[in-house]
Amino acid sequence: MLTLSTSLPQTRVAAFWRACQEEGRLARTLDDVFATPFEYRPVRVQTVNLQHVHQIVTSDVAVEAALRADLITADGWPLAVLAGQIGEHCERVTGRQVVDALLRDRAQDGRRVALLGSRPEVAANFGRMLARNGVTLAYGRHGDARTWDVAEIAAEINRQDCDVVLIALGAPKGEVLGNVLAGQLTRGLIVGVGGAVEMATDDMPAAPEWVGKTGLEWAYRLLHEPRRLGRRYLVESPLALLALVLVLTRVWR
Fold it and tell me: What are the angstrom distances between the C-alpha of 92 and each of 82, 95, 146, 213?
């Protein structure tokens, strides 16, 4: 597994991009994600957006978690578009799409889900919504993640025979936790979904579908949560995009 010893932004992003390509870890569609053999072994999926690129540049913990993911998806139009420019054509695949598949795709009937994070009342509502599609919320853990016993959580997820583990924590906490769980679970699809469960249950503002298709979901979220998301979208994301463009420009040449 590739590790990074340098803090140079372009070097880190380039190493991460090479790892995705050379190790065949780029999942191009949502179907690719669900087609993995997670019924028989743990498969950790990391959806990568510009916030994750920023963290890859600035955080040793975040970059190690990203490099250890089994699958990487483009969560965000900039990454999907830039990947297409160098022949790595892929769709945008987000944590919200994974959640929506569990809620609506009849092919998920019979799945057992674990939810780590979110508030108990949100989880209860989410469980009722899953049940309408024949999916069972088999296990949930809530509260302060810093107090969690990860080994205990992994043992319970194994005991409940969960097919999918949704980690509803912010980055990079969710990715770091997922990385640890991947080494302790016997099987299952492990996905960091951030606030996707809250959006699906209308506990958090979610952009309308047409806004997402225009690539302006970030603007919608910024408008609704300017204090929390201002720095992310107006400072960190543009710098991350610049680092990514500089790396891929070298690939294009």
Answer: 12, 10, 31, 10
Residues 234 and 241: their CA atoms lie apart, in Å, by: 11
Alpha carbon distance 154, 186 (integer Å)? 9
172, HSE (Cβ side, Cα atoms, 13 Å)? 21
- Cβ neighbors of 182 (< 8 A, separation 6 or more) are 42, 43, 44, 68, 70, 190
Give the span between the Cα atoms of 44 and 55, in whole angstroms: 18
**12-68 residue pLDDT tens:** 777 777 777 667 788 889 999 999 999 999 999 999 888 888 888 888 888 888 888
Rounded-to-integer distance, Cα 234 and Cα 236, Å? 6
Burial of 71 (0-12, 13-18, 19+ CB in 10 A): buried
Percent of the chain with pLDDT over 90: 50
**Residue 146 has what DSSP assignment?**
G
pTM, to two decimals: 0.87
DSSP 10-23: HHHHHHHHHHHHHT
Q: Are 93 and 75 a contacting pair, CB within 8 Å?
A: yes
- The whole-angstrom separation of Cα 159 and Cα 185 is 10
Q: What is the DSSP string of 71-126?
A: EEEE-SHHHHHHHHHTT----B--HHHHHHHHHH-GGGTT-EEEEEES-HHHHHHH
Distance CA 181, CA 192 (A): 12
Is the pLDDT at 159 greater than 50? The verdict is yes
Nearest Cα to 70, choosing from 15, 25, 32, 24?
25
